[in-house]
Amino acid sequence: xxxxxxxxxxxxxxRTVPIQVILPTDKSAGPGNPPPRGPFKTLYxxxxxxxxxxxxxxxxxxxxxxxxRNLAVVLPAGENSFYVDHPGSSRNYGAYIGRxxxxxxxxxxxxxxxxxxTFIGGLSxxxxxxxxxxxxxxxxxxxxxxxxxxxxxxxxxxNTQYTDFLMTNKGYYExxxxxxxxxxxxxxxxxxxxxxVAQESVKPKFYLACGTEDGLITVNRQFRDHxxxxxxxxxxxxxxxxxxxxxxxxxxxKALNWLPLEEAQQGVSSGHVNV
Length: 275
Prior knowledge:
Elements: E1 2-10, E2 15-23, E3 41-46, H1 55-59, H2 62-68, E4 71-76, E5 85-86, E6 91-92, H3 93-108, E7 118-123, H4 125-136, E8 143-147, H5 170-177, H6 190-197, E9 205-211, H7 217-230, E10 234-239, H8 245-258
């Protein structure tokens, strides 16, 4: 499995940005079996808070599982942005994830341009970003996979102090979302976006999962119920687990098995020596 590090200039962020791309173009199935050529189904996979573009490869076995399924995976760096636009500072992470990154990677790598072959996923903050961008761009993403999603639009308003710790700092949330009293009903309100997209003919399917000991379990259940009442196609799973890589390693595999991908077939590699 090819793991590529790529840097390019982003117009949405007005700076050079890093991405990692998992491509199955070097998959070896043995003598007489040519490697896959694409165009490949693609998962845009978003990391959580404090993370970067290397998180998913370091924390899970997604690289091997993607190769087995001839799936391309694009791993961007989202900083602590929640993958939303910040127009006042030229940090438009929503435009970057939902439009520019898809366009750039499709022009650069052998990726499918079909909506039904294009997916977005993430964990925690990345789950928020996957849900919001998936709903903002239903014409692009056919499915959303969101694990332990940080659906915090209500709870973040409980942080009323300006502190030194990012996750309790009111100033941090204001820098991401603006006026916190105006977030509900706005462009990044996942509930309002779902209500809007529910009226459209094209809408993504959802795979949601959360650990039952995770502090985010209640809001994930509430969002599941909201989507189901609106008529979305939702697959939801929960099991004992907390907010950690053990849970995400298990459930990214379940998410891949849920996506409409090729049947898994291992190639020959240092991790699979077929003797």
